[in-house]
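Field reference: "sequence" (input) and "structure" (output). Example, Peroxisomal biogenesis factor 11:
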Amino acid sequence: MVCDTLVHHPSLNKLVTFLETVNGREKSLRLLQYLFSFILSNKNLNLILNIKKNVLLYKNLQAQIGIVRKFLRFLKPISILQSLIKLYNKRNGSLHIDFILTFYKNLFNCLYLTFDQLNLLRILNVLPKNEFTVKRLPKITNYFWLFGLVTSLLTSAKTIITLNEKLIELKNNNIEKQNEFEDEKIIQSLNIQKHQVLRKIVWDLLDSTVVVNSLDLIKLNQNGYASLAGVITSYFGIKEAWDKIPPSTK
């Protein structure tokens, strides 16, 4: 009876559905990858867990998970390229700031994932291993990731400005009593949107610390801080993917 209750529990059904998706597995593996990186980088955890004997095991697990994630993202740039073409076709002849920021954000993400696929081909020995593919290619890939994050931050900042303007306009308007309830709902909706955008800004800033550290532009991982940022953003990604799964009806 207890086993039957557990097997058919809505949370377990939702977990199974989550792990059946490519996105769910990729996000979960990302969390594990950065968790291993954090354990390896943090001196206190090194002492507590006494992982000196298993350093190679942790490093190998981290590397293997990274390769599996590249497989799970295989051909993903195609969907982003499709979105880019649709966005360009809907530009209505005007190149306003919102269009430019969104377009370049998607373009940089597409280039990042495309070059990441080239890294996978190098790992599989499809591409030759030379100075360019081993050293420069990963750096170019990370730069496209960084450019994508910067444009995403600019997009979010522009959205915050727009939302604030709408909120000020609503609060300053002389509204008749019968419309107060409707305007309160609009204000509440705008505040929810603002909260989501602020969360995205935090997300992008944390991911920026990861890529800036990977590019050696700023050393942020002396005690695992960049890896911890990766753990946090991995949780954000899992939470976002989890919330998109409809409640189980089983």
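The longest helix spans residues 131-172.
Residues 20 and 129 are 34 Å apart (CA to CA).
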